[in-house]
Structure formats: C-alpha cells, structure tokens
C-alpha cells in the first residue's frame, strides 16, 4: 500500500463511518495534515473526500492511515481481470508497476501462471482506467464476461489463443526446417543438402520479423518501462545472429565468416514451441478451477404463482423461490428439498466420490448433479452467496496470491536480464580479446542471451501453487491464502475439538434417570420446554427424544437464559429450572452427589451427563452419546505416524472425554474446557514452541482457530469458523486434516524443486554458453526446455489424490 499519488493530481476517496457533518469536518482536517495534500473537501452526503495534491508525493497508505486514526474508514474493493500477452515474471512486474501508478489503486498483484491481475481499490477507479494502464504497459486487460484467465467456463479464449499461436509455430517450423536440415545432416557426415545464402535470408527473415514479432513487441514494451524480460533476451539474441549473418552476406563482416540465419530462426521457433507447450501445461494447472466454474448452472426452472414452471436465467433466482430439478440436471443454487428424493453427485464440490442420497428437508448444494429423481427445492442462497461461488472465490484468491518466496524470486528476476546482458557483453568482448575471432565471439554472446531463462524462475512458484490448490479443491480442501502452505508445512501439533469434529455432532439420548419426584418422561418434557428454540446439538438431541416418545411438552419456558459452556436456566409454571453440566450444578449449589455412581458409569462409556434441577433440587440426569466419526481413529493414527502430536479439547468431563479419546487413540486430552478458554490452550501450546493447527467446526471454535498457527474448519461448520480458518474442509472428515497437511507439504516441495531446477539450470547454462560450448540453436532449445521442466513438474501435482484412511 505504498503507491505514490502523482503530483498535481486529484483523487476522490470514499469514506465510511461518518454520521454527521462534524464527522466530515474531522476527516477533512485530518487529510489536510497529510504531506502533499493541498486541499481536502469531505462531503457527508456523498461520503467522499476530494483531494488535491502538490509536488510532494503522498501515499495512499498515509491517506487511509490518517482516516483510520480519526475513527473512520476507507472502503476497499477488489477488481480481478485477465491480462493477455505476458510471457514471464518481468511482464507481470511491469503490469503491477503500471497498475500501482493509477490513483486509487492500493495494491496490485499480477500472477503470470494464471494470467490474472488482482487490484485493491480505494475510490472510484473505472475498468477503463485500469485497462488503459495495462495497455500502456504493452498488454491487454479482459474483464468478467470476456476473461478466460484462470478458468472461465469453456476455455474458448485460451483455446483460440493456443490455435493462433499453434498456427504461427507451424509456419515458423516449416520455414526453419530447410535451414536446420543441412546442419543435422552434416552431423552425420553428409553435405548433400546445402541452402544458398540468399535462400537462407529469404527463409529466416519471415521467421525473424513475423513469427518473432511478439518478442519485439514485448521487448519494446519492457524497455519503455525501463525494465527487461525474456522478450528482450530473445529479441537481442536472435537479432544479433540474423544481423551478423546479413552483414557477412553483404560483405561487411569477416571474409568467409559463418552465417547464423539457421540459429536465429531455430531460436525463435524453439522458443515459440516452448511457450506454446508452456501455455498448454499452465492451462492444465488451472483445470480444477475451470471444472468448478463449469458447474455453475446458467438456467433454472421456477414455479410460478399459478403452479406453472418457467425457465429463467440463474441471475433471476431469488431466495425463497421454488425450483424444479430434473434428473441429470445441476441444482441451480443452494436449496432445501421440499418434495422428492434422489441421489446427487457432489464430487467436484466436496470431493465425495459416491453419489449422496438426499430427501425432503435435506440441503443441496448448487452445482451438484441430480440423479434419477425429480426434486422440488426452495432456494436458500443465490449469486455470490452460494457454496459453489464461495468455493470458486476462495480457490481463485489462493491461486492469485503470492507466497513470500515468490516475492524474493520477483526481486531476483527484476535484475536477472540486465545481469545476463552484462555477461553476454563480457563473453563477446572476452573472446575478441582472446583472439578467437568475431564468429566465435558472436556465437558466445548470442548463446548467453538466448539460454538465460527468467521464465523458469518466474513460473516455479505460481504454477506449483495453482496446481496444488487446484488438486486440494478437487479433494474438498480449500486453501484460503498461499501463506497457509508455508504454515502447514511446519505443523507439529494438531488440536481437535471433539463434538462435531472427531464425533458426528449428532448426540442422542441413551439413558435418563429421575431420582426425585419427577418421572423420567415428565423430566424429559420439562427439559424439552426449557430447550425449545435452542440450536445446541445436545438440546436438539433432547428435543428429538421427547418427540420420539410422543410426550406432551408444556409451553416454552420463560426468562430463558443460555449460560455459555455450562447450560441453561428458565422458569416454567412458577418453578425455577436449571439444566447443565456438573460445574453449573456446583456453581448454583445443587447437590448431585447422590447420582455420582450412575453418572460415573455413563461417563466411563463416553456419554455426556447433563443434570436437571427444579427449584434448586436435582430432578433428573441424562446421558447423551455422540458416535466418533468412522475415519477419526485412522486420522489420529496417520498424524501420529507423521510424528505429529494430537490433542483433544472438549467441555465434557474427564471421564467421558477419556472414553472417547481411548477409542480414537488420543492420549492427550484437555477436558472441561469452556468455549472461551480454547484459545488459551492453543496459546499455551504455542508458548511451548509448538506450531499448532486447530481443527473445529463451531462458533465457539473461531477464537482458537484464529489463535492457532493454522486454523482448519471442518465441513458443515459455522460461517464464523469457516471465515476464520486458513484451510476449509468441505466434508466433515478428520482424515481430510491429514490430506490437507499432505497436499500443503507436496505443494511446498514442488515449489522448492522448481526453484532448485530453475536456479541450477541458469547457474550451469550461462557459463557453458559464455565459454562458447553451445550454439544459439542448442541454447534456444535448452531455454525452452527449462520452462517446460518447471511447468511439467508442477503439473504432476494435478494428479495428487487424498490418501484413503481406514473408516472412510
């Protein structure tokens, strides 16, 4: 956020949080105090600030910071669009620089692997202004509705581009082949085929200036911005070879000098081949995101007021609309089934390979494919609020981000090309001074220019991130930002919340006893009256038990008060009711010692025991059991096998928690933990020097998720938990925790491998070229191969699949 506002410019900045004209005056006064601001006018009515600047630079960070200091905010919006024409990180850096110079742009990030730009804006910055900045840098911006970057449905844009570049590649190869053939035959001792110098010129020139025009355009655009990229190297190297050959042919070079028309043509053809194959491979890394986006339905069938069905665009569907989903169709939006029963394929959304049975009352996700039944559903979320839209947004956000190591590579790439040019000049002059002759000096200098590859460096990290996050998404694992990959790699302790995470989250009443005057059913009816309206899993279990028994439940209790982490209190027919755990009973002075024996028996079996008190006297106690998830024990064993410490947090009693932990193989249990104390336990582990991952699903897990080195929200969790976590698991399977850590590790390893090969290639190749051991044609082939190696290595990640564990 250090963009400098250009001198002698004005800027309109939105301001949030103002409630009166005095607020506007405070903001105005604060902004006038920012160095470089000559005038500020803030309107409360329009909630905008109009700023004028002098010749002193002012940063947007300073402006937004000053507004925050006086208690107000600057709303930030995000614009995402495709950028066409980029070939390496140098191109991405140029576009970033151009976009950052636009007044109102807080931050710009450009990803060469996805060909996307993500721009954070403060103020009204039109798309035309952003597109103009990209165009000035020598590239083309395409916005939503036009873009295919990172996976617009169908891939028509990328496919058309590949066809166009493929045609140019074939034409270039056809013209280059007669030039290269004599060189190949000579290697086998044959001199039967020779091409005259004039024909060499005729064949090489179209390749140089038509097929190679993209490199000249890219080089000119880079030099205009005082930067350099791969296009500069290719244009310089091939032009030097072609120009030197022309000079020799016209008698301006050394008598009898070699012609390198075939080298110049071969370099351009091989680089074109490499870029074409690279584009295809890069497209493969974004296949997962394109598959998700292809799920988005375009039409829906809506029931009208008269009961008839009309077909409408998906954008016309509103919350509460009744829709029909026929066999084989995709569910248009998130919805609840009103009528019908079917099996739905949710594999591309959740990673679940088998169709899932759904009936009346069940929720269905937009994009899931309906099986054989006709469904009537009611829309519950539309547009950007649907699960599929949120998944796509999360994946795109992660894929467009930059890891810390990528920022280091970008800085290296920025100085890479000037260093290569310097090495080329040193090699050229060095060979001349050594008396090797102009021919040898030209070959060495040109080979250095052509063999250097900033592309491999620039693609090493983003291609691995795109491939890894895409593979994770297919398995039902969403990575919220790229820094998560680094944090996940270091995890040595995993803390699980018990209920709803290691267990099904669907407790059921297994036993009850009313030692007082109340009978069992009467006590359960009182509990149902007290718990009506509660969404707590234990409350739902008690209400369901009362319903199954057909009990006559009194009217809802009055003065109901939820006691977080302990229980609930209320009044019914003049009696004071209190229900909760032993800690609440002790706190309220309710004697439960008489039931200690039976409560201990229930807890030893893993049940949670709740007590009901009426007017301060124990009225009943209830045992509720929640079954462990089928894959939980396997997940714990797999984590331990990786040397990871596993801890379970729960509000249950030590006996009940120990019983569940014993079944799952967990030896470290923190029982009796209040919801507000979970974060403290996580912090305590971190204080020991542990790198902690917290796994939870509820609202009360959110603070702990935020406190952990890595927060993991498990499927079916609350919105708060999902928004707080760094990793989101779309299915409620503890085994996906193991898979998430593995895919993060695999992605990080691919990044390391790619960077190693990219650096190693340049370290080895540049000296070989400088010492004259390579021809320009061989150097061009090696350069193209280096980029393909990096992208191809990243592409292997797309084959990654979550490991199957016992119980899944």
Give a short overview:
This protein has 808 residues and is an alpha+beta fold. The protein folds into 5 domains: 4-142, Alpha-Beta Plaits (2-Layer Sandwich), CATH 3.30.70; 158-287 and 401-468 and 750-797, no CATH class; 299-387, Calcium-transporting ATPase, cytoplasmic transduction domain A, CATH 2.70.150; 477-503 and 628-730, HAD superfamily/HAD-like (Rossmann fold, 3-Layer(aba) Sandwich); 508-625, Calcium-transporting ATPase, cytoplasmic domain N.
How does this structure look, described?
The protein has 808 residues and is α+β, with helices and mostly antiparallel strands. The chain has 5 domains: 4-142, Alpha-Beta Plaits (2-Layer Sandwich), CATH 3.30.70; 158-287 and 401-468 and 750-797, no CATH class; 299-387, Calcium-transporting ATPase, cytoplasmic transduction domain A (Distorted Sandwich), CATH 2.70.150; 477-503 and 628-730, Rossmann fold (3-Layer(aba) Sandwich); 508-625, Calcium-transporting ATPase, cytoplasmic domain N, CATH 3.40.1110. Helix content is 48%, strand content 19%. The protein is built from 28 helices and 31 strands. The strands form 7 sheets. The protein has a 7-stranded mixed β-sheet, with helices on both faces. α25 (702-707) links the parallel β29 (692-696) and β30 (710-713). α8 (230-249) runs antiparallel to α14 and α16 packs across α27 (735-770). It is elongated and about 115 Å long.
């Amino acid at each position: 956020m250090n963009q400098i506002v250009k001198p002698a410019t004005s800027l309109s900045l939105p301001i949030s949080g103002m409630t009166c004209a005095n607020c506007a005056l405070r903001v105005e006064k604060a902004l006038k105090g920012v160095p470089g601001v000559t005038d500020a006018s803030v309107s409360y009515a329009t909630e905008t600030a109009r700023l004028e600047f002098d010749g002193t630079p002012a940063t947007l960070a300073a402006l937004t910071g000053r507004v925050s200091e006086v208690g107000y905010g600057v709303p930030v919006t995000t614009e995402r669009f495709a950028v066409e024409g980029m070939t390496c990180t140098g191109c991405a850096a140029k576009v970033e620089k151009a976009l950052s110079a636009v007044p109102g742009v807080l931050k710009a990030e450009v990803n060469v692997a996805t060909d996307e730009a993500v721009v954070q804006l403060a103020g009204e910055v039109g798309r035309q202004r952003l597109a103009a900045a990209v165009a000035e840098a020598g590239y083309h911006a395409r916005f939503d509705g036009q873009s295919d970057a990172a996976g617009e449905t169908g891939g028509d844009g990328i496919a058309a581009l590949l066809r166009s570049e493929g045609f140019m590649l074939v034409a270039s190869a056809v013209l280059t082949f007669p030039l290269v053939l004599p060189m190949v035959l000579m290697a086998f001792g044959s001199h039967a085929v020779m091409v005259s110098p004039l024909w060499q010129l005729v064949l090489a020139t179209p390749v140089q200036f038509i097929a190679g025009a993209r490199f000249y355009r890219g080089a000119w655009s880079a030099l205009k911005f005082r930067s350099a990229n791969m296009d500069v190297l290719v244009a310089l190297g091939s032009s030097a070879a072609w120009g030197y050959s022309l000079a020799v042919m016209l008698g301006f070079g050394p008598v009898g000098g070699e012609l390198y028309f075939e080298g110049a043509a071969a370099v351009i053809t091989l680089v074109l081949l490499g870029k074409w194959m690279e584009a295809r491979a890069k497209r493969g890394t974004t296949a997962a995101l394109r598959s998700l986006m292809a799920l988005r339905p375009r039409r829906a069938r809506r029931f009208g007021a008269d009961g008839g069905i009309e077909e409408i665009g998906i954008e016309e569907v509103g919350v509460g609309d009744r829709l029909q989903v026929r066999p084989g169709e995709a569910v248009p939006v998130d919805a609840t089934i009103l009528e019908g029963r079917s099996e739905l394929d949710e594999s591309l959304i959740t990673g679940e390979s088998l169709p899932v049975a759904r009936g009346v009352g069940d929720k269905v996700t937009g994009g899931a494919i309906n099986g054989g039944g006709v469904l009537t559903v009611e829309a519950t979320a539309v547009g950007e609020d649907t699960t599929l839209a949120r998944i796509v947004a999360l994946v795109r956000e992660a894929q467009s981000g930059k890891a810390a190591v990528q920022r280091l590579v970008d800085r290296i790439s920025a100085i890479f090309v000037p260093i290569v040019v310097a090495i080329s000049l040193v090699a050229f002059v060095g060979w001349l001074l050594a008396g090797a002759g102009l021919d040898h000096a030209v070959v060495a200098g040109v080979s250095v220019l052509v063999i250097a590859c900033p592309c491999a460096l620039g693609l090493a990290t983003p291609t691995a991130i795109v491939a890894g996050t895409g593979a994770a998404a297919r398995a039902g694992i969403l990575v919220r930002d790229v820094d998560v990959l680094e944090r996940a790699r270091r995890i040595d302790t995993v803390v699980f919340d018990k209920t709803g995470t290691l267990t099904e989250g669907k407790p059921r009443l297994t036993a009850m006893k009313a030692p007082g005057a109340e009978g069992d059913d009467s006590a359960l009816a009182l509990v149902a009256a007290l718990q009506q309206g509660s969404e707590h899993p234990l409350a739902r279990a008690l209400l369901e038990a009362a319903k199954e028994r057909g009990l006559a439940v009194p009217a809802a209790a009055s003065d109901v008060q939820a006691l977080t982490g302990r229980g609930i209190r209320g009044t019914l027919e003049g009696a004071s009711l209190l229900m909760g755990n032993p800690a609440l009973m002790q706190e309220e002075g309710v004697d439960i010692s008489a039931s200690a024996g039976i409560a201990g028996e229930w807890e030893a079996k893993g049940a949670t025991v709740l007590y009901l008190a009426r007017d301060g006297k124990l009225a009943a106690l209830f045992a509720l059991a929640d079954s462990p998830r089928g894959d939980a024990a396997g997940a714990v064993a797999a984590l331990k096998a990786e040397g990871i410490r596993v801890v379970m947090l729960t509000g249950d009693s030590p006996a009940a928690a120990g019983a569940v932990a014993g079944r799952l193989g967990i030896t470290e249990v923190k029982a009796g933990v209040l919801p507000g104390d979970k974060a403290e336990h996580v912090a305590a582990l971190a204080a020991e020097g542990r790198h902690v991952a917290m796994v939870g699903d509820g609202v009360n897990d959110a603070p702990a998720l935020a406190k952990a080195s890595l927060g993991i929200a498990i499927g079916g969790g609350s919105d708060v938990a999902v928004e707080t976590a760094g990793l989101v698991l779309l299915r409620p399977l503890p085994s996906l925790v193991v898979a998430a850590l593995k895919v993060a590790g695999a992605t990080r390893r691919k990044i390391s491998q790619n960077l190693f090969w990219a650096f190693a290639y340049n370290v080895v190749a540049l000296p070989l070229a400088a010492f004259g051991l390579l021809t320009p044609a061989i150097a061009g082939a090696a350069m193209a191969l280096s980029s393909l190696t990096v992208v191809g290595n990243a592409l292997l990640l797309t084959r990654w699949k979550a490991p199957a564990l016992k119980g899944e």
